[in-house]
Amino acid sequence: MKQGLLAGIVPVLLIAAAWAPQWLVFLLALALAKGLVVLGLLLLMRTGLVSFGQGLYFGIGAYAAALLAHRGGLADAALMIVAGPACAAAVAAILGLLLARYREIFFAMLSLAFSMILYGLLVKSSTLGSTDGFHVQVRQLAGLALAAGAERRVFFAVSVVVAFILTWVLHRYLASHWGRVSTAIRDNELRVEYLGASVYRVVYANYVIAAALAGLGGAFAALAVGHVDPETTYWTTSGEFVFIAILGGTGNVAAPFLSAAIFEALRTVAAQYAPNVWQMALGVAMLAIIMFLPGGLWTLVRKRAS
Amino acid sequence: MYGKDEIVLLLITYAVFLILEDVIKLVWGVESKMLPEPYALPGNFQIGTLVYPVYNLVLIAVAVVTGAALSWALYATRQGKLLLAVIHDREMSAAMGINVDRVYLITFTLGAMLAGLGGALTAPMIAVSPGIGVEVIVLSFAVVVIGGLGSLGGAALGALMVGIVRSVAVRYWPEGELFIVFFVMALVLIARPKGLFSAPEARKI
To answer: A280 and B178: CB-CB below 8 Å?
Structure first.
């Protein structure tokens, strides 16, 4: 039943893509892009790892997509949303060889270090716009030219479909052999090794998958915002992803999208009406969830259902 | 909050950080403030052609004294040894009758006080504004991870490394100032996955 409910959201979002006001489309598109990044974090958390550096792949995805349009002259959204995750996965395939050996806070800090190194490089590279970043304007999707003003709606619709498919695939993956081994690694890594499974290989694979998802999220975010800047790789961005992941919990693959939407909506409202205390509200919410709802908001949904 | 994974503590720290950032803005406003008197008052002294403020020397002295006092408190007093026992094995310490929660509370309070001391002593050297915590929080995590969790000497060495590397970068390679610290942290962690001075841990099945 739950699967049906989730599939039912897709047409609703597609209708929203066509008729909702521009600001709502923007908000939803950004939430969806972040939801994809957090979906990758969810996979890592299921493996027992918290990455404070997903901003690295978010940023790589965004910059790879944006550079393709800006420098490469290939301003085609379809190419961009392939390039983003591809570049992120390529970098993760190298860094993952190293990072897959780390756990707990050392994993968190080393991943953070890599994202901060990229941040430092981007801020200092004047050819890439330094701290200001640069604009991306794309009006083409797989060879089709899009009318001005409509392109954001089309990109959002594409991201809805892509995100839905990937979420379903990840759901299947988590239920598969490797997905189960991931949870076992979180619970007791040593026993998994003794049982004969390769912890390293599973962690590595999950790390690369998470990075690809973050890269895709970055590409979609670049398309939605129409601008990229080094802030995407700063540690506060990574912290935001972790926050959204904690908010939603790791109970279900739909949780990241739910909590990303709530987060973005909260932020928009708070920035409008209480710009000085919105961080405080976030902090209080996070503390409350860590203390009272260790499983995240999704525990509420599950209680309802049962 | 105590007794959870380090990673949960990291998240809680982040949450508290978000809250306090806004509290600072609410209490003291968003504009930056200067307090240059304590810095200028002790005057300067000269080594050759190099003019150097006395305040920096005082700062170094305070740091060394604090570090010495801390290591004395940790390794030579009863309370410090209790803390080491709790760090080593929380469950066993509780079974032996140590009030684990109290030890955590004292430790955390002391840690916060030291952070406050660091902030208060740094304030005269820079313009104070909301958001200075953002950089410090990440840098101090970097320092601790470089040194190895739970090692005082490691933290001291990590802090020295981070400080010197940054200063050298500012002088010779200003473009690298922002990320050189993280570069060093990455290098240290690659060479020694648990930091420079980490105690070997027993594997628990």
So the answer is: no
